[in-house]
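step: validate -> pass
step: tokenize input -> pass
step: predict -> running
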Amino acid sequence: MHIGVAGNIGAGKTTLITLLSKQYGWEAHFEDVDDNPYLNDFYEDMKRWSFNLQIYFLHSRFKRVVEIRDSKETIIQDRTIYEDAHIFAPNLHAMGLMTTRDFENYKQLFNLMTSLINPPDLLIYLRASVPTLVNRIQKRGREYEATISIDYLARLNERYEAWISGYKSKLLILDVNDRNFVENPADLNFVMDKIGSQLHGLF
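step: predict -> pass
step: emit ->
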């Protein structure tokens, strides 16, 4: 079974996936951040590196989906292939940070890839306000995230909400603004109860 966790930068995807994988014995697949050869360059010069970064993500996420499809394990994945195409790439295009030529090229490749795969059995969307995102990004202190602007996060949030409003497959929305999965066991239990209700019919 394939479970995807979606959400803006700083929403708490990695934290929640780590906890759920331990609780349920699921295999966790995390976003390839540390080994990403474009991420630092992208945050320093978004216009120059936006297309390179998005193609790298598209390739790595498609490869991961194929691996998940062929696995017999229950896998929980940090961010899905759909988020780049519905949130990050169009946002870069709208901001003038990706050319129309590159964006159309990207979309055609995405459409081809996604015609060959299925969406996750369950998508968990972590909904967080911009102040919550900023607070969490500052706390974790990743150097390449230091230049992320509030406007950029707000634009991404708007696109996430638009995408989720039209999402057609099995979906669980969790408001995480007032929840601390690490320090408050009740918050983690609440999430697990919600997930259990969603998954009951999938096993």
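step: describe -> The chain has one domain: 2-199.
step: cleanup -> pass
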